[in-house]
Amino acid sequence: MKITCNKNELTNALQIVARAVATKPQTPILSGIYLRAEGTTLELQATNYEIGLVARIEADIEEPGELTVGGRYFQEVVRKLPGENVKLACTADEKIVHIESAMAKFTLLSMNAAEFPTIQPLEGNLDFAIKDNILRDLIKKTVFACSTDEARPVFTGCSLEVTENKVTMAATNTHRLSVKSETFDQSIGNIKVIIPSRILQELLHNMSSDIPTDVKISCSYNQISFSFDNLYMTSRLIEGQFPNYRGVIPPDFATHVKTDTAAFAAAVDRISLIARAGVYNTIKLEFADNQIHITSNNPEIGNAEEYIPAEIDGPDIAIAFNAQYIIDVLKNIDSKTCRIGLNQPLSPASIQEEDDDSFVYIVTPVRTNH
Amino acid sequence: MKITCNKNELTNALQIVARAVATKPQTPILSGIYLRAEGTTLELQATNYEIGLVARIEADIEEPGELTVGGRYFQEVVRKLPGENVKLACTADEKIVHIESAMAKFTLLSMNAAEFPTIQPLEGNLDFAIKDNILRDLIKKTVFACSTDEARPVFTGCSLEVTENKVTMAATNTHRLSVKSETFDQSIGNIKVIIPSRILQELLHNMSSDIPTDVKISCSYNQISFSFDNLYMTSRLIEGQFPNYRGVIPPDFATHVKTDTAAFAAAVDRISLIARAGVYNTIKLEFADNQIHITSNNPEIGNAEEYIPAEIDGPDIAIAFNAQYIIDVLKNIDSKTCRIGLNQPLSPASIQEEDDDSFVYIVTPVRTNH
Fold first, then answer.
1. DNA polymerase III beta sliding clamp C-terminal domain spans which residues (chains A, B) (predicted)?
2. How far, CA to CA in Å, does B34 sit from each of A131, B37, B72, B93?
3. Which of A126, A157, B27, B201 has the fewest beta carbons under 10 Å from its own?
């Protein structure tokens, strides 16, 4: 292999794929990044068996070929190269990668490219495309609600359900649930899978184009892949049955509240300063007289209270929540005003955007003694 | 105590003094910040016995008084307050601090203010003043060379020597030495003390005014204080004898080199990527043919080389250094070009600014087998 490519493009591609390089790889080869030069394309791959990331850049290829090199040093070296371009060269027998840029020359020991578990394009039984801005919104509004407890795998991912022309993503850690759906003009197909939050975070991280582009999704029984721009990302799916969350969403609420999203978020964040040291990070909300009275207390620290104006329709109610569960959803609400739906002090409440029923967040209250 | 002050000013003052609040305080009271309201001034103090930091802001004082409150929560709460102003109130018998800003009200448990070891103005036996930009330069060009090894305390601080009209600051970890001096129009006095690097770092951190202001320095046999703007900082001095470093500075050099500071720094940083995993982080420099050939190698990783242009006057020489010791000094050289002085491969070398002999950096080479 002998190629020349742009340094910044290579740096960016490495930064993307390197996120799949495990710090403690299961086998040594997984600490490597695989490169393949063919035609006018340099392809970079990294995988930790759970997810696989592939990036492609243009390159001037004198001799096609492949190589695998330790991800950490390769990434650091390329990032610090002085020139605009980078030359990479590797001969099969030498076991060395030559890197050249302006007046700097590096050699890095290579790994056996034949050992690298290369990522193959997934042959799915359902293929469809979603605009990246829509997919981003589906992920952003749900993935934060996933559990991090690996003991119960189904809760560590987002449920993706496609039913004809409707795509629904949902996540729950059993104490809160976030559901976002999108409807399309035409039928897409039918699937129901659980996608690990990790690959969804990678997607969020990389879907940043200003111009909406198509993300091609392919699904098999145990794998999913996402293809857009010059990136290809795959992940195993989570086995198991996602709970039937639809029964958790209350059909109606006794008390309807509207309040300013940013003011509510800032006040909850502030008042929860006192609650954070506690086990449940509990804040109390009292809805009455068109105000929300937010309080918290910790006998060892002190207490906090604040009133914010709200539009309240229905009976007064006092209810307590884990402050983090409120902060998390308010960060993902895009409308200036948010809606809160309440029934009883121990019944699940809802938080939603002002005029959009395609996104609903359900949170279970905390029982308090005060 | 009952006062009102500006929220941002209080936040800034807290941010400054909180750096003296130990995360693991020797006694509980040291986790607190002490506040005293008097006249039109609110004074904030924190100390860990080694250093003491005092900041003063203007306040509208309804009732003068003092209080001590846990530093961590107080700082977080004030920073997140919603209003422009903050009201603080505390009654001696209540053991509670009331904090109010716009619609937010907090109470925090207070500590016993009488227990706080308040910082008293130091009565030194030498008082003098230096412009902050000059003091900043003295510190910046030496403090990085201190040792962090607490087993040999004298090397963990900077030597400050005042002899008539000359102020010299020096630091060494025994492998490298950095010395910077300044001459004044008039005599200042005579002292020789070792100042802990910690307080010098605090000074660097806070001396950021664009307009040169006087820093008043007061020295006793075991304490030093710095006073500027609305800040007062004290520190114990390090006991012991700073080594007579003047003998370490070679009187002349056989080979004189001039090179571009930024290009040299970038190349050393880059080439040392390969060396960093080694024990001594060793890079080799070969000075010949008006070029510096920088190389490093690690049998387990690979190797690196780069040529940078230089003006070389004197015999060719190959010499090896701990790359970090070169990177550290180049960061603190302000001139576009730097000078390197060399004798033998195992003799100390010097690195200096282009036309300024008031700053000299001496570094001991590393013995290599290649």
1. 248-367
2. 56, 10, 12, 17
3. B27
Q: Where are the alpha helices (DSSP H) in chain B?
A: 7-17, 71-79, 132-140, 197-206, 261-275, 323-331
Q: pLDDT tens for residues B118-139?
A: 999 999 889 999 999 999 999 9
Whose tokens are 């412009």? That residue is B131
Pick from B79, B259, B301, B308 the residue to mutate for testing the A interface (most A CBs within 10 Å).
B301
Side-chain-side CA neighbours of residue B251 (13 Å): 1
Q: Which residue of B has its CA nearest to A275?
A: B73
- Structure-token pair, residue A113: 């490219």
Contact state of B267 with A81 under an 8 Å Cβ cutoff: no
Pick the CATH number of B250-363 from 3.30.565.10, 3.30.450.40, 3.10.150.10, 1.25.40.10: 3.10.150.10
Instruction: State the fold for domain B126-247.
Output: DNA Polymerase III; Chain A, domain 2 (3.10.150)
Nearest-CB residue to A106 (from B109, B304, B308): B304
A/B interface, count of CB pairs below 8 Å: 96
Question: If DSSP codes are grouped into helix, strand and coil, which group holds residue B39?
Answer: coil
B268-290 CB burial, b ≥16 within 10 A, e <16: bbbbbbbbbebeebbbbbbbeee
Q: Give chain A positions within 8 Å (CB) of B266.
A: 80, 82
Eight-state DSSP code of residue B356: E
Residue range A90-114, pLDDT digits in tens: 987 889 999 999 999 999 999 999 9
Architecture per CATH, domain B2-115, reads as Roll (3.10)
Yes or no, beta carbons of B76 and A273 under 8 Å apart: yes
**Nearby residues of B242 by Cβ (< 8 Å), 6 or more positions away:** B154, B159, B170, B192, B194
**Chain A residues touching B300 at Cβ < 8 A:** 109
